[in-house]
Write a sequence for this structure.
């Protein structure tokens, strides 16, 4: 069997069919913002491997930190044991996230961090003698992950989850805020939320949202004012608010965390993706002392979750090193420059008949088409143009590593403009 046939016949890729004709490209190595393919071609990375690789690939400081840690230990169970990488990372996380968040639960992936957040909310209300508060409010076109509970709060249509509708909990979906980022939101935007809270708050544990940027469910940037008003409403009706910052965390929107655009501190926050600079899989769910104490004082007196690879020392080392690298860099200026360059460069696309809208926020540039693109065809065109851009549905988007030079970013932008135009 050739390598290609093993891949094609035996390995699933994300959201893919076994034995599909869609090409996958074999990567031999990656360095900085470049992926090196087996056939020798080099591609400029416009995806940061799905929001993660903020410092680029094969970073010498990241590599050195991991090599050092690997010689001490790669892993040790977290039940009854602890280690410096987890302790140092936790100190850093509670320092850089909103002030009220000071208790940290580590898990292996974003989806699990969302599951953990939802369990925390339910356990909290259970401990408060309100066990009927089990349901969640979520926004249409949200994406929170692929596991069952995470799926239950992800948009049922764009997430294609209708297939599982009888096996997942039924949550309450409300319209997404239509007011774009930078504008104050209308009463109309909050109408449905108000209604739902008024009628159902007795059974609702929390509102789950991706603050400011809805990612995989539509790449939509919405009003910070909406979040502020939603938080006030949730407080009023005794409903917790969970911010899923898995995509937005660590600078992507121009702030370290997207909730800073609204100057808000959620009750529970999920982080993942760029947490380790893309090196290893790690996620975390953060909450307040009030929530953790309430859970501790309730039945059964502990928080009921504990993954095998919880707080893996290598992953914690990668996270701590990545955060330090980010904070020591001029990341704000870098991201402002990326934003400016994408605004200027992608804006040309608004003139094309096939394009619905161009949106840019921080280091995220989106061209929304009028119709879904042919992913295999357009991906090949991008590869032939020397860039790695992977659209989905109607969305062609760029979210490059923050370290990208303006010349390389120009090549990414020009490829998008040219290929969309054709
Ligand atoms: C990617 C993502 C998740 C899921 O994370 P995984 O690591 O893929 O499980 C959850 N929420 C948001 C907002 C995401 O972008």
């Amino acid at each position: 069997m050739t390598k290609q046939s093993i891949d094609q016949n035996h390995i699933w890729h994300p959201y893919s069919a076994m034995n599909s004709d869609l090409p996958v490209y074999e990567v031999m190595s990656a360095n900085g913002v470049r992926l090196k393919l087996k056939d020798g071609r080099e591609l400029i990375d416009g995806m940061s491997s799905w929001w993660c690789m903020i410092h680029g690939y094969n970073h010498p400081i990241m590599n050195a930190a991991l090599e050092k840690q690997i010689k001490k230990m790669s892993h040790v169970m977290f039940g009854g044991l602890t280690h410096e990488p987890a302790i140092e990372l936790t100190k850093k996380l509670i320092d850089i996230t909103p002030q009220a968040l000071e208790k940290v639960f580590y898990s292996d992936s974003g989806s699990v961090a969302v599951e953990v957040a939802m369990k925390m909310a339910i356990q909290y209300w259970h401990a408060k003698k309100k066990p009927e508060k089990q349901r969640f409010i979520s926004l249409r076109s949200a994406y929170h992950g692929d596991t069952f509970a995470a799926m239950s709060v992800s948009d049922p249509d764009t997430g294609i989850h209708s297939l599982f509708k009888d096996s997942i909990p039924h949550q309450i979906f409300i319209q997404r805020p239509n007011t774009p980022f930078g504008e104050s939101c209308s009463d109309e935007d909050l109408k449905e939320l108000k209604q739902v809270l008024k009628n159902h708050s007795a059974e609702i544990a929390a509102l789950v949202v991706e603050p400011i940027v809805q990612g995989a469910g539509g790449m939509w940037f919405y009003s910070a004012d909406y979040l502020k008003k939603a938080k006030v409403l949730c407080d009023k009706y005794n409903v917790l608010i969970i911010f899923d910052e898995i995509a937005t965390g660590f600078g992507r929107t121009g702030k370290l965390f997207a909730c800073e655009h609204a100057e808000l501190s959620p009750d529970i926050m999920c982080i993942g993706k760029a947490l380790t600079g893309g090196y290893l899989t790690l996620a975390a769910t953060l909450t307040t002392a009030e929530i953790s104490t309430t859970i501790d004082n309730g039945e059964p007196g502990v928080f009921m979750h504990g993954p095998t690879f919880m707080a893996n020392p290598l992953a914690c080392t990668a996270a701590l090193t990545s955060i330090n690298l980010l904070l020591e860099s001029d990341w704000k200026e870098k991201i402002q420059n990326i934003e400016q360059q994408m605004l200027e460069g992608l804006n040309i696309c608004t003139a094309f008949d096939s394009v619905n809208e161009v949106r840019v926020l921080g280091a995220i540039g989106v061209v929304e088409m009028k119709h879904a693109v042919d992913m295999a065809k357009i991906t090949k065109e991008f590869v032939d143009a020397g860039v790695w851009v992977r659209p989905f549905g109607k969305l062609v988007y760029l979210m490059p590593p923050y370290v990208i030079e303006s010349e390389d970013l120009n090549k990414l932008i020009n490829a998008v403009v040219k290929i969309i135009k054709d």
